[in-house]
Amino acid sequence: MAKVTFIGLGNMGGPMASNLLKAGHEVTVFDLSKPAVEALVAEGASTADSAKAATQGAECVITMLPAGKHVEAVYLGEDGLLAALPAGTLVIDSSTIAPETSRAVAEAAAAKDLAFIDAPVSGGVGGAKAGTLTFICGGEVATYNKARPVLEAMGKNIFHAGPHGAGQVAKICNNMMLAILMAGTSEALALGVKNGLDPAVLSEIMKQSSGGNWALNVYNPWPGVMEGVPASRDYQGGFLVNLMTKDLGLAFDNAVANQASIPMGSLARNLFQLHAGQGNGELDFSSILRLYKPD
Ligand code: NAD
């Protein structure tokens, strides 16, 4: 079992840290939110006054932060963690951020002889709670192999996508597809309901037909159709519209940089941006349904 420091205890990081504790790891946590820290301390984690203090004696540091600017602030610069960690420490960033940002952190880590991988996740809050996340790793194979036993406490499928930044590229592609599927699923359900169909019956039909997909099968956006998903609790918790908009922005920037064409991804980005602009940024991303069903 390892001494692990976990930084960023939000919708995803909280349950991930909890699963590390359940697996018997010695976990120290830090977050800017006191209640988030207290919840993990109640489960047996230690804490400290700052991110740097929390990493004292850590064999492995994991971050699960909202966006690239938070990852840069935590790791880089004179006050960043990379400057303070002893050589050989395993450093895993599971936030979804731009591949270039991951590569910049990897380069700074290598200069300090730290073993860094990007390891963004898929599977949502449900997967984080159940310990069934998919980890999509980028970095050296030796570092990936070193990280696997720790990641196995939080996930079921652990992939090596390629060199530094490759985990982020794969994750960005996945989330662009997810946004398209969630918007498309909402559109199809809204059309059926306009025709007088029961959304639950239509969902069941499409699940068993060629329209079946993850958004429909396990994260139905129509309120009341599926238990335990954000749509059935007023779109609270889950994966925020603001975070999906961030990921679609990453896909868009990446497409521009690589001269790739993403017409569906661009449309999805505009739909989610419009929805965020209407005051829905803090709701789960399945609330995109409200664009089609405003009442
Ligand atoms: P969140 O906003 O719920 O949590 C982020 C946490 O980071 C917050 O508790 C915040 O206080 C903390 N934080 C911010 N800056 C900090 C700092 N400098 N030091 C310490 N703590 C700091 O976000 P989330 O939903 O947990 O997502 C985290 C990352 O995972 C994002 O990059 C997101 O895109 C990705 N992701 C989320 C989901 C999901 O379903 N929510 C799924 C896959 C990937």
Automatic annotation (TrEMBL):
GO biological process, one term: L-valine catabolic process
Active site: 171
Catalysis performed (reactions): 3-hydroxy-2-methylpropanoate + NAD(+) = 2-methyl-3-oxopropanoate + NADH + H(+)
Record domain 3-hydroxyisobutyrate dehydrogenase-like NAD-binding: where: 165-292
GO MF term (any one): NADP binding
Boundaries of every 6-phosphogluconate dehydrogenase NADP-binding domain copy: 3-162
Signal peptide extent: none
Pathway in which this enzyme or protein is active: Amino-acid degradation; L-valine degradation
Keywords: Branched-chain amino acid catabolism, NAD, Oxidoreductase
Gene3D superfamilies: N-(1-d-carboxylethyl)-l-norvaline Dehydrogenase, domain 2, NAD(P)-binding Rossmann-like Domain
Entry EC no(s): 1.1.1.31
Keyword NAD: yes
Short name of one Pfam family: NAD_binding_2
Top-level taxon in the UniProt lineage: Bacteria
NCBIfam families assigned: HIBADH
UniProt-listed PANTHER family: 3-HYDROXYISOBUTYRATE DEHYDROGENASE, MITOCHONDRIAL, 3-HYDROXYISOBUTYRATE DEHYDROGENASE-RELATED
Family classification: Belongs to the HIBADH-related family.
Protein name (Swiss-Prot/TrEMBL): 3-hydroxyisobutyrate dehydrogenase
